[in-house]
Amino acid sequence: MGEMTGFQLGVIGALFLSVASSVSIVICNKALMSNLGFPFATTLTSWHLMVTFCTLHAAQRLNFFESKAIDLKTVMLFGILNGISIGFLNLSLGFNSVGFYQMTKLAIIPFTVLLETLFLKKQFSQKIKFSLFVLILGVGIASITDLQLNFVGTVLSALAIVTTCVGQILTNTIQKKLNVSSTQLLYQSAPFQAAILFVSGPLVDQSLTKQNVFAYKYSPIVLAFIILSCLIAVSVNFSTFLVIGKTSPVTYQVLGHLKTCLVLGFGYTLLHDPFTERNIIGILVAMLGMGLYSYVCTQESKKKQSTDLSNSQVKEKDTEPLLDGKSLGYQDKENQDAKKSSRDSFV
């Protein structure tokens, strides 16, 4: 019972850290890109990952966690895949309208459910599917404003969906099958993610912005926001691996849409972004979907725990000896006393 309570507290802590850090970095990056004119998102992400690796390396040298060797081929392919998925998401945003990009992000949940059902044989109840539908509907109402289609953007969005889903499923699978923690996996894979984005980032950003990141004039305030963004990114990257490892890729995507709703709310209250009745209705519907998803997951988890407990009790009962040596001895003594008393009665 104590271990289960500790696990639940760990999950709640991971979810809170993920939400807080993600909302913080979105606000920071929005100020950096929109207000200060630094548009190089992919290159910035490579810096995030390099700072994350350096921070984890320092933590490992100070014995905050123990490094665990993982097959080099596995961790290399995993890191490169995650790096490529980030690049595709940024390209999808650049070549599509904001509305179509939001559709791309929404499509990640049903595609993840499909992949886990087909390849991992994972079962999702009708209640879970319904709550996810309500969530996706609400986020769609709140965030999708226009849908402009083009061939290149559609292909990039499809590639972004596939690579993101596979990467997140592998994050969960590797941690569980190889028995590594989120910190150990992130420490091993971050250099490869950073390397692929460090090489491709400037090219991707130049194709999207028509500007060269190396020719940009860095003012002190821009450098300060870049450093702040990188520091927050350490928490974002760590919490991402932590949440996916402790829960599931689908739960992480649900959490991501909660962040979207919070960012919309913060944008309205802090940055005075335009806000309509449609945004309010969509956020309320999305919150209803998240509430349903959390409730159904909690109920199914309790049901599974009670089933496992009853099965273990039945197993223990089946394996427990019906008669041990002491009980046999006690019964033999009772039989002997009964025989003796019967002989005495005849006498």
Summarize the SSE layout with pairings.
Elements: H1 2-35, H2 41-61, H3 72-95, H4 98-119, H5 126-143, H6 151-177, H7 182-209, H8 220-246, H9 249-269, H10 277-319, H11 325-346
Helix pairs in contact: 1-8, 1-9, 2-7, 2-8, 3-6, 3-7, 4-5, 4-6, 4-9, 5-9, 5-10, 6-8, 7-8, 8-9, 9-10
Domain Sugar phosphate transporter: 21-294
Region (Disordered): 303-347
Keywords: Membrane, Transmembrane, Transmembrane helix
Structure notes:
The longest helix has 43 residues, at 277-319. This protein is globular. The model is unreliable at 322-335 and 338-347 (pLDDT under 50). It is an all-alpha fold and 347 residues long. Helix 3 (72-95) runs parallel beside helix 7 (182-209), helix 4 (98-119) packs antiparallel against helix 5 (126-143) and helix 6 (151-177) crosses helix 8 (220-246). It has helices at 2-35, 41-61, 72-95, 98-119, 126-143, 151-177, 182-209, 220-246, 249-269, 277-319, 325-346.
Sum up the structure in keywords.
mainly alpha; globular
Report mean pLDDT, rounded to a whole number: 83
H/E series: HHHHHHHHHHH
Largest sheet: none
E-strand count: 0
Radius of gyration: 28 Å
Amount of beta strand: under 5%
Percent range of helical residues: over 70%
Task: Sum up the overall morphology in one term.
Answer: globular
Structural class by secondary-structure content = mainly alpha
**Uncertain residue segments:** 322-335, 338-347
Number of helices: 11
Keywords: Membrane, Transmembrane, Transmembrane helix
Protein name: Sugar phosphate transporter domain-containing protein
Pfam families: TPT (PF03151)
Transmembrane segments: 38-58, 70-93, 132-149, 155-173, 216-238, 280-296
